[in-house]
Amino acid sequence: MRVFPRAGRRTRITALTLLGCLPGLAAALALVLYDPGADRPVAIHLAAPAPASPATRYRAPRPHIVPRSAWLDASVRRTQPPPRYDDQVVAVFVHHTDSPNGYSCAQTPEIIRRLYTGQTGDRAWDDIGYNFLVDRCGTIYEGRAGGADRAVTGAHTQGFNHRTAGIAALGTFTAGVPVPRAMTDAIAAVAAWKLGLADVDPRGTARLVSSNGLSRYREGTTVALPAVAGHQDGYRTNCPGAALSDRLPEIRETAARLQGRGALPGTPLRTLMETPPATALGPPAKAPTGTP
């Protein structure tokens, strides 16, 4: 996706390449998120869940999520089939949209709308692929239809769309590009909430089955992937970019704290900050030709 600035003080979206990058704490933890209409910080205090039964001990609070109606209007909405669902979400895949970073957060609804138009038009998909999108100000938007609270089957990671959620960071985060703290905190908040519903530790791994031989693994292969994974963990791509990939350990730790989890017993801090490797329980697929 591409957004080109117009000369002058105000930035306006003029064109887009619409393919994107696709196929307890005892006290409250304060995350610095942002107002969607202004590029300034707003302190959002997300309280850690109160002690409860073992089944709900590690559930994180639901962050504020802007509904689809904020970016999708009748002028671009397409007829689509009913959404599909899985039983639960046991992993999330983090993406970037491979679009410019210098946008105003007031432009986010238009950026998502154009991304939706490209995927449902140029690619002939039935809906936007990502379940959630996060802008540079830390505002979280509902993406794919079906209900943010439900385990909606997405279209974000070839071979691993079942029992996962796709979270897209609006921008391009290749090596050396700063990743806004508000953005990573918001990604962590979504991951903590969605994974907590299935009692999944964001620092752990999830067993997933590849449903497509175009993924990194042959169709039918069971793989142990990070519970908070980058797109590249399941598909041969550079997404979500080296800079955002480097922030995944921090995102995992923040998500775990939001769930009320302490440090893993006997685990050195150095190990906590390392990315859990993918473990294939079957032969890896042969690399596809071309660049995704």
From TrEMBL:
Residues 63-213 form the Peptidoglycan recognition protein family domain. Residues 261-292 are annotated as: Disordered. Pfam families: Amidase_2. SMART domains: PGRP (SM00701). CDD domains: PGRP. SUPFAM superfamilies: N-acetylmuramoyl-L-alanine amidase-like. Belongs to the N-acetylmuramoyl-L-alanine amidase 2 family. This is Peptidoglycan recognition protein. It comes from Streptomyces sp. 900105755.
